[in-house]
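Quick check before the chapter quiz. The format below is the same one you will see on the exam, so make sure you can read both the input and the output lines.
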Amino acid sequence: MSSRCLRIAPGLPDRPSGRNGKPISALAAVFLLTLLGISTQSLAAPERAVPRELRVCSDPNNLPFSNRRLEGFENKIAALLGRDLHAQLSYVWWAPRRGFIRNTLNAGRCDVVMGVPVGFEMTLNTAPYYRSTYVFVYRKDHRQPSGSFDDSLLRTAKIGVQLIGDASTPPASALARRGLVGNVVGYTLFSGPAGSNPAQAIVDAVAGGKIDLAVAWGPAAAYFAKRRPTPLAIVPVQPEAEAGVPFAFDIALGVRRGDDTLRQALDQALARRRAEIGRILEVYNVPRVGERFVRASP
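Here is the expected output.
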């Protein structure tokens, strides 16, 4: 959803639940969960007081979400929450791969992971603080896609999609159902060398004419599209779900399972700082759709 939706390859574990309580399919979850490096293991943690230090496990090289320079919008939101809780903020940097949760949150190295989809079962999650969607990215001097995977434009277009190894993402699955696999060009979501953000390549390919358009996770696509010299635009994927596969996700914070005290404190901080969080998301050009926030616990 990363994040890197965010952002699990073959052998995806237990599925998270969607907004209506129904399971999110493996294909729908694969982008967001792999971007975040979600592991198949989850350990319960004893209840404890809200820490004086708020330790965040995060990707060191994944703008617009996070990096070591603290330039991502998740870095800004984490700093805001740390100040609200009067806790010193610190980071444990860990590249998102399989086993991320096992080796970081569940190993006690950190207290919170930013940007997990609501309903994900490997962590105890807060109320959502934004909802975003996959988008089509295209050049403004080209025909605008409608946002539907049934758009006739896609039949002859070279289409970029984000992939995790051999695993299919929601856009790739939607294109495959329409027999358009031959039109697809894949772009990895795994972090690369420092300064090479994984979500940037697919947007650069649209700007450079290597592909006609792309379908990418909205926060990253919109961030990089706005910063390219070639005029680019985005259109949200419609509808928000297809054949049980969602393209839009509510995004929350994840803490260790059983750590209700910290989850409750973060819920309350999110509620108090909602307007400020909204302004941060606007600065980073994060596309938001149909947000219906859960009320913070008392």
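If your answer matched, good. The radius of gyration is 18 Å.
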